[in-house]
Model the fold of this input.
Amino acid sequence: MDWLYYSALGIGLALDAFAVSITTGISIQQMRLKHALRIAFFFGFFQAFMPLVGWIIGEEAQTLISSIDHWVAFILLELVGLKMIYEGCKVEAKVEKESNPLNIHILLALAVATSIDALVVGVTFSVVHIDIVTPIIIIGVITFFMSLSGVYLGNRYGHIFEWIFTRDNWWSNSYAPWHKAGN
Done:
């Protein structure tokens, strides 16, 4: 597999971190460069670290599953795909509780939650005998820069979405029937 494949995989794995980075950027009022770098580092690090953990788990379990390794790879990738479809389709409940995404515990939880699919990819890499070093570097770097840009975009342009969905405006009344202005 080549760097183009790893880059495409890195982009796919980084999309959830990118989305969370945008919402994080929206929620931080006094954004500083160090905040954006911290968020991007956490997401990039865990997106690179989790495939390594998965690869190690897969290498250790190799003897147990060597006769069915192709089916294991298929099932794991299928689960990743189904998880992505599910998360794309689910409607989330409105959360009223405010939280600080710069809090180390919250940031750690977000980074781990967005990188679970990368763990499964790491197991798959070990099952199909792919060297792990190049993919984790590419995945981590792509996630870092996508998260950095997501924080910036959310902080810079998030007010547009706030205006669309929280104000009594033409969009809310005409094109967003699920949203009632003033609720």
The chain is about 75% helix and 0% strand. The chain has a mean pLDDT of 81.
